[in-house]
Structure formats: C-alpha cells, structure tokens
C-alpha cells in the first residue's frame, strides 16, 4: 500500500511542476477572489534503499498464489475416527460432510467402517484432496505356537495301564461301582447322591494290575464332561441299571464312545434287585447298535451288583483282558503331553488342575502350557492328596503351580523354559484377538450391508415424493418408535435378571453355562450372566452384584461370614446349592417372580335390567336400574360391568344396592333389586345385562425348559 501511495504522489508532483504530456500547460497566475486559490497536497513517500532522488519507480504486476488444497492420506476400511484424524478435524466434521448422502448418520459411530466412495466424498466436500497412503509391508509375526511331538519310536514304548471311563445314566450306580472297586465312599460325599464332578482315580486289583478310572457325571447337565471323558479314555464301561433300562444319558454315552472310537464293556448293574431284568436291558442296547456277545456281537456284558460287590472281579478281569488285546503302550521319555480333566481354585494351593499324563514323565519343576495358561510345576498330588514326585503315562495327577486357571479339556504340553511358555501364551492370545477381529469385521460388514439395502429400499419407495412429502412420511413411520422408546426401556430394565455364577471347578461352571445357553424365554424376562468364575464367593462378587442389581448363584462353593454380612447389608441374594438341578429350579422360580402376574376374571353373578326409573336425592336425579338376578348373586363389594348387546358400556362399582326398600350387600338368584352405578350419566335400557365379577392375580411361570 505504501508502495502504491508513493507511486501516486511522485507522479502528481512531477506533472504539476514540469509539465506532462498528459496534462496541458498551466496559464499565467492572476489574482482571484479570496479562498479560491488551488490547494495542492503533496503525498509523502518513503524512499527505498538504493533508490536515487528523482528516479521513477517501475510498477511490477502482483502475482496471486493459488491456494493449495490440503492432502489427506486415505486407505481402505477407514473408520470415522481414523478419517477425522487424517483430515485433522473432529468427528462431527465428518458427519457434517456426509449430510444429504445415502449414509445413515443416526447409526454411525466413531468406529464405523466407511466405504471407499464415502471416504472420498467426505474429503471432497471438505475442500481437500485425497491421496492413497503408501502400503507399508507389515511384518508377519512368526508362529510361536507349540505342537505335539511326532509319534515316538516303537522301541521306546512300554506297556501302560488302561484309562477306563465309567459312563451311564444318572443314579444307575456308576460311583457306587467305583467305590466298591477302590473300597472308598465317594458316593456318600456327593450331594444328593449324584456325581457332579469328573474324578480320576487309580485302582490296583488283587492281581496287581492297575487301572485308571474316570468317573463322569450321569446328570443331563454334564454332557461336556462325558464327552471329555470319552476323548481321553481307552475303554468305556457303560453302566446300565437292570431295573431301569436304557435312558437318555445312556444313549448319549454310547454316542460319545462311538464318536471317540472307543471300545465298550457293558456293566448291567443292580442285578440283585427283585425287579431286575438284565435280558431286557441287553435287548434294548441292540437297538442302539450295542450288540452283546450272546447276541452275536463283540461287546462283553457283565451282570454286577455294585452295592453288594457281586461279579466286580469279573468286570475288572474283562477290562484287563480287553486292555491286553488293545496292546496299550506309552512313551515315558521326552516332553510331557497330557489333558486337563478338571480345574479348580484352591485357597491354599491356588489354581489346581487334575490331568491325565499321556506321554513323557511329569516331574517337579517342569514348565507346562495349556491353552492360554502356563505353569511351573511346584507340587503334584494323587487322588489321596499325597505328594508324588513323578507321574508317567496313564497316571492321574493334581498339578499345582498354574499362573491362571486353564479350562477343562485343554491339551497340556511341556516347553523348555518359562520364556518359551510366555511366547506360546502370547501367540495364542494374539491369534484369538485376530480371529475375534475378523468375526467382528464380518458382522459389521453384514450389518452395514443390511442397513444399506433397507435404506435403498426405503428411498426407492419414496422416490416419487417431494422432499417435504418424504420427510413427513419418514416422521409418520418412526413416530411410534419415538413415543414408545422410553417405556420400552423401562420395561426392559424391569424384566431383566442379572446373575453371577460361581462354581467349585471349571467343569461345573461350564455345565451351568451350557444349561443357561438353552435359555429361550427372553421375550418374557431377559437372563443376563454378568460374570462367572471358579472359587468361593468374594467381596468383589458382592460389589459386582450390587452394581448390576443381580443375584449370586453358587454351586458347591461357600461364602465366609464377612461376605454373608456384606451381602445382607447391601441386599444381595446369595443362592448357594450343592445339587445342580435345585440351583436351576430356584433360578426358574426367580425368573418367574419377575414376570407380571396375569389377571383372571371370575363371574359371580348375572342380572338383566327389567325397568329403569329415577330417584331424587336432594336436588339430584339418580338413574336406577330395576333388575332380576338370573345367575349366581350380586355382591356390592365386587366389580360390575354393564353390557348392551355385545358392547361393554361401563365397568366400575355399585353405589347403591336395594332389595325392596332395604339396603343389602348381596342379592341371590331369582330375586329382584334396584341398583345405581358410580356413573350417573349412564342411561339404562330394558334388556341390558349387568355382570358381577371378581379379579384375581395369577403368577406366571417362565416358559424355559432346561430339559430336566
């Protein structure tokens, strides 16, 4: 500006004093009237450096620089938050950029994936230009997982004891049979007399032969435990009660054994009972493709009495004979391999697992990996809780030293060092996260596709409408959703039962969760498992239950006095059970108590209107209906309904009920009466019906059937 002002000033002065081709020469000065002389204002201009006095300034054209557009690096599958960060804007800016497009902004979240065309559109509308981000080669992580060793050299194999799983229906005598074999009292210790854990025991027969037995639960809730027992075993002893025959879990046990391709020995138990019929049992088994030797099959059937100990030695010999035929051998050398049979949390020992060793010899100090958990073996115990120094193939053992609690059924593998164990666990956790991300991405893409199709369909159906008509149509379509949203939310909150499940061992918790997965009555009351775990009830569980206003269900666990007092103070219900079906029954009762009771109507009496008249009380005329009771009786304390034809005109109570001139409480069949209702504006007509009825609430029951 200063430079332009200087240019104008110098040009004006030069032209005035020296003449200029652009201006005519000035005439000679002559005196004129006052205040009429021309006044000249000289514009001051700063002299630039290096410029001489009187030198003319050459004007240079001003170049306007073209505004550079901001470049945004984009890539495939960008989320809204990633795009906003790349544009150096906030998330709301991206939303505004996508206004009036086919994108459904109401359903868009910061982590919503955007299609390529919408990424480019948002950048374009923001006055920016996009460029594709350079592809960076991601370094492929090295697979750090551990696998089973190759098959051992046959020369290294030595004979091992058979692993025998006892399976069958609940209460058919499986645990009593095992008790008789090992002369213990396991069944007496089980709640309700039914096995609810998977137990591993080592039994030595009088002949010196050793057999490892797995006692699996027969209850319907423990299907997963039976499946695990069948997968790690060499022989299955199928126990069937002679007085009961083939039942549901008997059939399921046969299927598990066939799936695992394990040979079966049938033990027909309770043959000492008067109503026992072993022959019928064997005939029923033929229908399930279990053909005994006397019917031309290859399956041995032994008649036993577990309670009296009859023929138990014969059953054991049959097991040993079959094991010899199978030529069972194991490799006691090399790295340890095994399977987690059961896992639990012990107060003194910490996380403890019961495992069957399948290869190698486990010793104190070994480093093991199972799933995403690892252990440095500190102690090992047998089924009698005695410390053992080592455990070879087919030996059941309790392992102490786990950092976390592995799930039952996990494969146990030995590694060289703790560092290697951490690498394996880290790799498995990483792979699980990757798999989960893929599943989430597929779910997001499917949901987006569904919404896009729905939105496109709605747009096509309204394509012929103007924008005002389209907006009005959308408002009408969504009006009911807006009006009911608050009430629906309140109702959902009321009809939700949050629960916390705690069990003594991993298998028990798994069994309960498997039952809860069959819950199918969410339309009545939603069941929400907010937490589950292994171990006794803790103060953390009480705090969590208070946060969610939930109930704690414990199976074979305890709660110390301080925890019970804390629960009572905060009003948290503790439901502790030792029998699984009683736990489920109480859960069903609590779910049913959440349901709104239904109202049942009982008709007490019916009357017909014969005539109508008015009665004056003070200054008011009150309409009165003269009636005859046709059925039952009219009770003044109950509710009444006025019906004309098929229409209900009124429901309420009676203000006056008279027989002749007396006020009465009830009028029986065949008697006439006059009555007035609590609505004085009603007009009665001969032929109207008046119904007297009562309402009673009936508690609803949850429709969920867990199957037992």
Automatic annotation (TrEMBL):
<dbReference type="InterPro" id="IPR027417">
    <property type="entry name" value="P-loop_NTPase"/>
</dbReference>
<comment type="function">
    <text>One of the essential components for the initiation of protein synthesis. Protects formylmethionyl-tRNA from spontaneous hydrolysis and promotes its binding to the 30S ribosomal subunits. Also involved in the hydrolysis of GTP during the formation of the 70S ribosomal complex.</text>
</comment>
<keyword id="KW-0396">Initiation factor</keyword>
<dbReference type="InterPro" id="IPR005225">
    <property type="entry name" value="Small_GTP-bd"/>
</dbReference>
<keyword id="KW-0547">Nucleotide-binding</keyword>
<dbReference type="InterPro" id="IPR000795">
    <property type="entry name" value="T_Tr_GTP-bd_dom"/>
</dbReference>
<keyword id="KW-0809">Transit peptide</keyword>
<keyword id="KW-0648">Protein biosynthesis</keyword>
<dbReference type="InterPro" id="IPR000178">
    <property type="entry name" value="TF_IF2_bacterial-like"/>
</dbReference>
<dbReference type="Pfam" id="PF00009">
    <property type="entry name" value="GTP_EFTU"/>
</dbReference>
<dbReference type="GO" id="GO:0003924">
    <property type="term" value="F:GTPase activity"/>
</dbReference>
<dbReference type="GO" id="GO:0005739">
    <property type="term" value="C:mitochondrion"/>
</dbReference>
<comment type="similarity">
    <text>Belongs to the TRAFAC class translation factor GTPase superfamily. Classic translation factor GTPase family. IF-2 subfamily.</text>
</comment>
<dbReference type="Pfam" id="PF11987">
    <property type="entry name" value="IF-2"/>
</dbReference>
<dbReference type="InterPro" id="IPR023115">
    <property type="entry name" value="TIF_IF2_dom3"/>
</dbReference>
<feature type="domain" description="Tr-type G">
    <location>
        <begin position="159"/>
        <end position="329"/>
    </location>
</feature>
<dbReference type="InterPro" id="IPR036925">
    <property type="entry name" value="TIF_IF2_dom3_sf"/>
</dbReference>
<dbReference type="GO" id="GO:0003743">
    <property type="term" value="F:translation initiation factor activity"/>
</dbReference>
<dbReference type="InterPro" id="IPR044145">
    <property type="entry name" value="IF2_II"/>
</dbReference>
<dbReference type="Pfam" id="PF22042">
    <property type="entry name" value="EF-G_D2"/>
</dbReference>
<dbReference type="InterPro" id="IPR015760">
    <property type="entry name" value="TIF_IF2"/>
</dbReference>
<dbReference type="InterPro" id="IPR053905">
    <property type="entry name" value="EF-G-like_DII"/>
</dbReference>
<dbReference type="InterPro" id="IPR009000">
    <property type="entry name" value="Transl_B-barrel_sf"/>
</dbReference>
<keyword id="KW-0342">GTP-binding</keyword>
<keyword id="KW-0496">Mitochondrion</keyword>
<protein>
    <recommendedName>
        <fullName>Translation initiation factor IF-2, mitochondrial</fullName>
    </recommendedName>
</protein>
<dbReference type="GO" id="GO:0005525">
    <property type="term" value="F:GTP binding"/>
</dbReference>
